[in-house]
């Protein structure tokens, strides 16, 4: 903050608006950080529920089908999509997903430290998609792509974490298809719908994601 | 002190024991266990340093060696078997699941014992399945035990002061985690409100979904006011060097923990190499 | 702690600021100067400005009481002064200029301490000590000094609990004290308090006011307090500023001057002035039939009883007030009477009259299954075992925290929820809703989201949700806090009318005026002993 800008502000007393230095679209306001943090914690809660419900499906499918278990994975990718869609800042997808994974780990997820590795990879996967669109587009298509991006990243990481690389091409292909579908739908579409529903409640009215044209009162 | 706000005459009504830095002992960690006294950042570092070497290989020797050594280390550190079981029982399910998947779908190699659709049980897949199952335990059990019972406040102190992660993000995450308790109360109050307002009788599933969504919306609103309050207390100013009320330091215990983690993983991998059972993931 | 030369006096944070010149006046004991020129603010989703065309100068060290009707924009102004309205186009629109010590408030952050209107919102961290220390940490106060300030601040507001006590389960009043302590510990140049005593018991009001005034005088800080009740602050402030309903300054001057010269217009604008207690006519009736009986009741959270052997009877046409210090368990009692918490021991019993009061015939069972077509079983004697819709038509509850009450997306919808669930007709519902919106002055906000209302508006809406179905027993937890004189009078008149119509009304309150008008029966809850509530000596 330069002190020299102060006089100009004082003199603009009756002007329509004060000349505040324009802030970058990419600057994280405190409300962005705190909301991202709360989203991360809330998504972490969802993960914890899913760590039992979704994991049951995943277990059964993973053990007895070649890779169809991937269908359950999407929910674990929700953090990145929600973070990106709501906060719309570089790094939001990554931060929310990693925080959600960490919360889930600290409250006892079966994957322990690997939860955080997954969170980082999945967050990066979604982040990359938002970056590709220069953090300018946040429609349904981008949301689905972000979910799919997170899924591809998860798939890649699991090549090593779960040693999936030792598995046959049929398994890997089916797993890739099911995880990408799941990411696009359970993370992408669900994340987009949630964002829209949240915007409709007015909870996002201090975010670009929730700005409505409607004026009340 | 001039400008104090204590009532005139009645100086501090509380006489609290403080340490040499003036920090009240009340807010400092207590707990006699070795793992309670390390900096909470250390178990993370240890878990990373421990897990990565083990993740490079798929063999039973390294996994078994690491598991056994880690158990010995916990025994030395005074962690009781019950505690180990309590924090890691879930792995007793996860391990066989991973093993089964590998057993059925690993790339075939050697003699085949049965085939069904894409599933093929071969010498290779049996070997890999056992290795994967044990590896899940070897990586999971020690890290779960080390990372359980971490206090979020101390963790945040460590992440900011020791790991030097950006303070704004760390503190916000901590404030977000406090909302956990608030969410629980909100949930209770919301169920009470719904009951009082005649919405409590609808189907359980639908009520659960609408309440979960309402909680998410409320959480985001809470985030908005929380951000306001935090800013009102000077949070987020970029031109002030933030201080930390609670110290977060490293001590000899932290060094011991890291050395133990690296040592165990190192010995385990070395043993595998020596017995030429080391098998780089993806090398087959 | 005095060893650190930077920790000197009240403004030890300054030297830690990088790249900032030390101005002469910032070292003296001088508070912040506030200057507004044609200032206005429009919230992100609102058409109307919350504040417009404000011209106001407040000199360093002044203590100002900010008055004005509910919805006048008082909270908005305070948030702006604290620099927390946001400075981004997504946050809202700013007009004119508002300066704190010559700087835009968002650059002066940290020298300004704000306590928000909603006590729950003011808590940041999980433990009491950490929460109070939070502001000091952000200002770069050295560690030892921080803890010294934390203890002083907690003592000053009379919150005597261990520093590592969780902030999760404080009563409304305890929380408000904590919030004020958090701001005092920052030793700000400008202290902004938004209805700081609204949830406090009378002893707490004096204690907290004294603490605030002492802190402001000691540090020379400028003080701005919002409070509807003039008498509480009258002798402690230098100046009274009244924001008018129609966007202008209604009055400005010393308390005596303003209260003398503008008495009539202030009363019309809803300001509380001593000696002009609002009169609400009450029809004098003998108490009617018994409705709800507490018998040997033990109430508390979970299985831990705060109080035992509590007995009382609620009669039709009688108004009961529940009084007691902060944290005594009034809210807990109210929720137990309302059938929302299960008694720890003893019972809350509904008489036959109350059990017959609801119109269960029109109540459908919920859910999707076939079961929903069956009639609900008749209401039993214990409200805590009733179905939700049986409760709805018999006992209504207003929660202490308005946000817990809200279940819908707009003010109008919020009011329709109850009548809809009770199976009232469309016409009947919409007439009743319109009537309530007008009576409680919420019509212009019918489409707004409940959470975006001002504090007083939220309170009125939460009360209105219960009035919409008007059950036989009404349980209100602090129904009048944060109300200006005018809306207070209207609200209490509605409450009095309900009593006259034969409803049983219970109000948990610290409001002496409410007790005066509606205190037919007084229940006093004493402080309970709680082992960990005292600091070990
Ligand atoms: N976050 C928000 N978003 C949209 N509108 C808001 C918001 N906060 C306040 N308003 C509106 O701005 C107007 C002024 O509100 P404000 O809270 O400043 O009133 P107030 O004078 O403090 O009233 P009270 O005495 O009831 O607390 C009200 O009409 C309110 O509905
Ligand atoms: N959700 C909760 N769970 C457990 N204990 C609680 C909870 N809410 C409050 N308490 C504790 O129970 C006691 C009584 O709280 P209650 O809210 O009933 O007080 P109150 O008389 O309504 O006070 P106030 O006037 O400040 O609102 C307090 O000591 C409080 O700390
Ligand atoms: Mg207000
Ligand atoms: Mg209460």
UniProtKB/TrEMBL annotation, chain A:
Q: Where are the transmembrane segments?
A: 30-58, 64-87, 94-113, 119-135, 142-161, 173-194
Q: Which organism is it from?
A: Pseudoclavibacter terrae
Give UniProt keywords alphabetically. Membrane, Transmembrane, Transmembrane helix
Task: Kindly provide the name given to this protein in its UniProt entry.
Answer: Uncharacterized protein
Q: Does the keyword Kinase apply?
A: no
Record keyword Lipid metabolism present: no
Low complexity bias locations: 1-12
- The UniProt annotation puts the region (Disordered) at 1-21
InterPro entries referenced in this protein's UniProt entry, alphabetically: ABC_thiamin-permease_prd
UniProtKB/TrEMBL annotation, chain B:
The molecule here is called Energy-coupling factor transporter transmembrane protein EcfT
Q: How does it sit in the membrane?
A: Multi-pass membrane protein
Q: Where in the cell is it found?
A: Membrane
Keyword list (alphabetical) reads: Cell membrane, Membrane, Transmembrane, Transmembrane helix
According to the record, the segments passing through the membrane are 44-77, 89-106, 126-147, 159-183, 203-220, 255-278
Q: Which Pfam families match?
A: CbiQ
The protein's matches in InterPro entries, at most eight in alphabetical order, are given as: ABC/ECF_trnsptr_transmembrane (IPR003339), ECF_transporter_component (IPR051611)
GO terms under cellular component: plasma membrane
* Superkingdom in the source lineage: Bacteria
Asked if the Swiss-Prot or TrEMBL record annotates the protein with the keyword Protein biosynthesis, the reply is no
Q: Does the keyword Oxidoreductase apply?
A: no
UniProtKB/TrEMBL annotation, chain C:
Similarity section: Belongs to the ABC transporter superfamily.
User: What name has this protein been given in UniProt?
Assistant: ATP-binding cassette domain-containing protein
Domain spans labelled ABC transporter: 34-271, 292-535
Question: What molecular functions are annotated in GO for this chain?
Answer: ATP binding; ATP hydrolysis activity; ATPase-coupled transmembrane transporter activity
Q: One Gene Ontology cellular component annotation?
A: ATP-binding cassette (ABC) transporter complex
Q: May I ask which residue range the UniProt record assigns to the signal sequence?
A: none
User: Which keywords does UniProt give here?
Assistant: ATP-binding, Nucleotide-binding, Transport
The record's listing under Gene3D superfamilies reads: P-loop containing nucleotide triphosphate hydrolases
Q: Which organism is it from?
A: Pseudoclavibacter terrae
ATP-binding is among the record's keywords: yes
